[in-house]
Amino acid sequence: MTPRVIDGGFHAWKNHRLPIWGGEYTPSKAFGEWAETTGDIKNIKPEDAIKTPPQYQFDVRPFSEYQKFSLPNSIHCPTGRLGSLSISNSSIYLHCAGRTRGIIAAQTLADQDFKGSIHCITGGTQGWELAGGARSFNNKLSADGLLSDETAAKHANHLIQKFNLPIATKDLESRWAKSENYCRIITVSEDFTTDYAISPTTLIQSTDQYLGTHNLPVIVQGPNRLDCAVSVLWLRRMGWDAWLSNEFIPVSYGNKRTSIVNTERNETWMLADRIIDIRSSIAFSASRLNGSDWLPRSRFHTISKTARCLFVCDRSQITHTRKLVSQLNLTQPTYVSWDAVPDELIDSSAVSFKSHPTDQALFFPDRHQGNLTHAQGYLDWEHSLLTTLEDYGDIPWKPVNDPLDHPMSHLTAFYQKVQL
Questions:
Q1: Tens of pLDDT, residues 192-231
Q2: What are the two backbone dihedrals, phi and then psi, of residue 71, each rounded to the nearest 5 degrees?
Q3: Which domains does the chain have, with CATH numbers?
Q4: 34, 193, 414, 418: least buried by Cβ within 10 Å?
């Protein structure tokens, strides 16, 4: 695959009236609106949800987000695990911080023919605040006591059979690997038991953060069959040729710190002229190696050619970072995986950036800090996405309840039909 540079860049693209849009994770967000329009989703206005509370109310985001803020009495249960709930014939409200993940969650329960009264709270926590409600903070309520392994297995198998989700055998994977039909393998888990596992909840609402190549098979693996089945179903609906791995991937507690580090740590690390952390700016803000600076790989060209640098990476970043450093001819580089940094060298104090980090969107940035104007603006933007797509051409996806035949890349199909 040879990357191409667009002649004239963004402005040339825009001048040819090719599709442009602002925002973040726009394809996934637009697809969420499509799922609401064509799926089996019942909404409840936050005003009504406040007046008539359900038997169970679930925040479907990853736990780290739920813990920061949620709605009063909300219990944490991410989308991939909703099918594990052993409750039935109950009234259930689902929500996220906005729209997409709550919509996907509600449709996911409908896909599993879950018995109960299921409603999605319109606008999530943002809609709740706009309706005059207050959020809750430092949340700890878990759905663990409501989950059943037997129910999870039942619903995973139900999804596989109902939607005829394809399964990639080891033999098929080997044949793909030996041919020109390259494939991508991703690991999903709602447990975040490994540094490299992706939450199915997050995968569907910000897919372009993880999958940038279309028209190739995507094999989904993980320790939980229900997580994998939910991920494959939604990826296929979005247009990816997603397959379930036939292999069971055991839980690996990769996020536990290890004492196994570079044996030359004491000498090489201390001799570095500069310690550069290339993990996400959010991760860097939470904790970092003493004396390190945050620098994305897009800014590596600013590094002095003669500087001896220590690069702190997530384990999955090391290979690509080595290649880039080699291309830039940086001298005497050393690499260390974040999970190999010993606790005594970690700084968890507050940190500030000289300018806004380039990996964090400046798009209604205060919508989760009580700024109701930003909250309303963000929700209005999400509502506008289908209309924006239709200004350029046809909606690229099939209705979510249509049969899942061999998928075509939604973005490829969309761009091919753009009305110039």
A1: 655 568 999 999 999 988 887 777 899 999 999 999 999 9
A2: -105, 150
A3: 159-245 (3.40.250.10), 265-347 (3.40.250.10)
A4: 418
